[in-house]
Amino acid sequence: MLGCYLMFHGNCAQALDVYVQAFNSQLVEKQTYGDLPPDPAYPVPEQDRDLILHARLLIDGMELMCADSHDRCNGGDNMYVSHTSHSLEGVQKAWDLLKTEAEIYMDLQPTFFAAAHGSLQDRFGINWMFTALRE
């Protein structure tokens, strides 16, 4: 599956409300930073608890994902191509090919929500997000 992941600077919830209305779409998943499991190494500031950690919208059968971020969310560079698969091997292969001469934002690694997740900007200037789903 190939999809888009849009990054917002604190106004993702508002954008979701507009997109649901504009496209008569369905919000199928929404998690806030307040939903993260507590981690003393990465505390979530109180003012960020209601920001969107991850959301999925279905628009005409296509998935659009988005989140709030304090990093890398300036107009023009606020989009990622997101590759999500049940195949860890397939995700790893694509990651290994695209990480050459890339800027790694987050190493591909196991997370609380996926078998592996990572993000980078490839040598061509494209932002990519990789997720291997758990079986």
What does this structure look like?
It is globular and about 40 Å long. Strand 3 and strand 4 (62-68) form a beta hairpin. The longest helix is centred in the N-terminal third of the chain and has 12 residues, at 12-23. The protein has helices spanning 12-23, 88-98; strands spanning 2-8, 26-32, 52-59, 62-68, 79-85, 103-109, 116-121, 127-132. It is an alpha+beta fold. The two termini are 15 Å apart. The protein folds into 2 domains: 8-68, 2,3-Dihydroxybiphenyl 1,2-Dioxygenase, domain 1, CATH 3.10.180; 78-135, 2-Layer Sandwich (Signal recognition particle alu RNA binding heterodimer, srp9/1). It contains 2 helices and 8 strands; from the N terminus they run E-H-E-E-E-E-H-E-E-E. The chain has an 8-stranded mixed β-sheet, covered by helices on one side.
